[in-house]
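so my prof wants the structure for this chain in the tokens format not the other one, which i didnt know existed until like an hour ago. anyway here's the sequence
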Amino acid sequence: MGKVPTFKGLILTWRATFSHHGMAGQVIA
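here's what i got, hopefully its the right format
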């Protein structure tokens, strides 16, 4: 668990997290 996520992976994770909250899932299209 010491690996740094790629930028794309980080964005996908961020989007998934926020879409679960129904808040900022569409801020980054």
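also thought this was worth mentioning. The CA atoms of residues 15 and 22 lie 10 Å apart.
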